[in-house]
Design brief:
single chain; about 270 residues; alpha+beta; about 30% helix; extended
């Protein structure tokens, strides 16, 4: 027989407030097997009804809860609470630095060159370095450049939701393409999936670097993107999903030639 759990409203911290039926029978002085829910509630034991734990990033938020009693049942009502901004910034900075350290180390390992070889080559003038090893340095430099930009964005953030957008950018699927009118025109495109705890679809935009074209969400078609004319140049079909408030790039890909659109994950 599966064990049943109860909210122990008599608990005094640090005593546990969720107990099983055996605990209630032994320590609570009332046997759930022979007592009604009303009798158990009168003794301070309410049937525990589990509720989903909220998704949150512990670098930025914490969770509090209060008990909600409904008749003879009890459940937890969770609230996600932001950490103090300086603490959240410090956590996010340390997280990004650790990721960059791992990424640069992985690049070095994947290259096959030993640390001694890379260190010795790094001491040479750039023009004297073998191209293959310079490629390793260039890849590592790209990681560092991105890290510096990310830390600058973290420092500039004024809310924890902004921090969350930086370290946990949205993911999803956009149904997109070009060619329904012409190969340089963006088809009417839309998100079919958008996952973020702190950013909405309307807080994003599409940007075409080749023509410096911004395509606003819902400007011509509600809840969708539409360039309303050519936005690409021949041979350059790069497009970005960006956050409107900061112009930070969420995703970047080549817009496919697909008159009926295709799903692109980001």
């Amino acid at each position: 027989m599966a064990n049943t759990y109860y909210y122990n409203s008599n608990a005094v911290p640090p005593e546990t407030d969720v107990v099983d039926s055996n605990w209630v029978a032994y320590y609570g002085g009332i046997d759930p097997n022979i007592s009604t829910p009303a009798e158990l509630a009168a003794a301070g034991f309410y049937l525990y009804v589990g509720t989903p734990y909220p998704a949150f990033d512990s670098k930025i938020y914490t969770v509090t809860y209060v008990w909600v009693i409904t008749g003879t049942d009890a459940s937890k009502d969770y609230t996600v609470v932001a950490l103090p901004l300086p603490d959240a910034k410090a956590n996010c900075t340390a997280y990004e630095q650790a990721n960059a350290t791992t990424a640069t180390a992985n690049i070095a390992t994947a290259s096959g060159y030993t640390g001694d070889v890379l260190t010795t080559t790094a001491a040479l003038p750039a023009l004297s370095r073998p191209a293959a090893i310079q490629d390793v340095f260039d890849a590592q430099s790209a990681v560092v450049t991105e890290l510096v930009a990310t830390i600058a964005a973290i420092d500039a953030a004024t809310t924890t939701d902004q921090l969350n957008n930086i370290v946990n950018p949205p993911t999803g699927v956009i149904n997109i393409g070009r060619g329904s009118v012409g190969p340089l025109d963006l088809n009417v495109s839309e998100y079919t999936e958008f996952n973020s705890t702190s950013m909405t679809e309307s807080q994003t935009e599409l940007y075409v670097p080749g023509t410096s074209t911004v395509i606003n969400y819902g400007e011509f078609v509600p809840n969708k993107f539409d360039s309303a004319g050519n936005c690409f140049t021949t041979g350059d079909y790069l497009i970005q999903i960006r956050e409107v408030a900061t112009s930070r790039v969420i995703a970047e890909f080549e817009c496919p030639l697909a008159p009926s659109n295709v799903d692109v994950a980001f």
